[in-house]
Amino acid sequence: MENSNNSGGDKQEEEEQSIEDLIIDVECEELDLNHRRIAKIEDLEPLRCLERLYLRWNLIKRIENLSTVTTLRELELYDNQITVIENLDALVNLEILDLS
Fold first, then answer.
1. What distance in Å separates the CA atoms of residue 12 and residue 35, rounded to the nearest whole number?
2. I need a surface site. Which of 36, 50, 65, 86 has the fewest CB within 10 A?
3. Residue 54, H or E segment
């Protein structure tokens, strides 16, 4: 008889995806990473032309590591797990921020 006590608690961690694991054109101006189970904003340093970043419906808990994407004009982070709005000072060109 098989042990059926596996509640699937580890499954969420296994399915989380890292931005680093994705193949992204460093010249892109728009990046859509919706529904990717991304837990952390990171590895955006090479994206010097990025103007629009969509990270809706992910597992992000903190707004962080955005200081290098100063070209960013639009940032969508709604339907994540963010509880504190912080670390946006470097985004001097930001016009649209959606955290709803």
1. 13
2. 86
3. strand 52-54
Q: How would you write the pLDDT of the chain (100 residues) with one tens digit per residue?
A: 444 444 444 445 557 888 877 778 999 999 999 999 999 999 899 999 999 999 999 999 999 999 999 999 999 999 999 999 999 999 999 999 999 8
**β-strand pairing of 74-76 with 30-32:** unpaired
User: Number of structural domains, the chain?
Assistant: 1
For the record, the structure tokens of 88 come out as 């946006």
Q: What span, in angstroms and rounded, lies between the C-alpha atoms of 1 and 93?
A: 60
Tokens of 31: 């990046």
Name the residue range of residue 44's domain: 14-50
Task: Indicate the burial class of 10 (C-beta count within 10 angstroms; 0-12, 13-18, 19 or more).
Answer: exposed
Strand partners of residue 53: 31, 75
Cα dihedral 62/25/93/32 (nearest 10): -50
Closest CA to 33 of 45, 46, 47, 17: 17
